[in-house]
Write a structure and sequence with these properties.
3-stranded antiparallel beta sheet; alpha+beta; 3 strands; 47% strand; 81 residues; 25% helix; single chain; 2 helices
């Protein structure tokens, strides 16, 4: 019986193709999600508050393909007046 030489690259490509056909390649597709973009945004200020501190109102917003939402808001003291 005579053995034929099969290049390793061809065997690797063949194994990858068969694995993709039987669902092993679906894991990559499921890992891909819609990316969120989150950042801080200043909504108000700077303004002098009653405690003689200059404050700004900041919110942490996230957006994706479906829209935007606010995750957290806070007052930040940035100086005195």
């Amino acid at each position: 019986m005579e053995r034929r030489f099969v290049p390793r690259r061809f065997v690797g490509a063949l194994v990858a193709a068969v694995a993709t056909m039987f669902g092993a390649g679906q894991a990559r597709a499921e890992e891909t999600t819609i990316q969120e973009y989150c950042s801080w945004k200043r909504y108000e200020g700077p303004r002098c508050r009653t405690d003689h501190a200059v404050g700004e109102y900041w919110c942490y917003e996230c957006c994706d393909m479906s829209g935007c939402w606010t995750s957290w808001c806070e007052w930040r003291v940035v100086g005195t007046c």
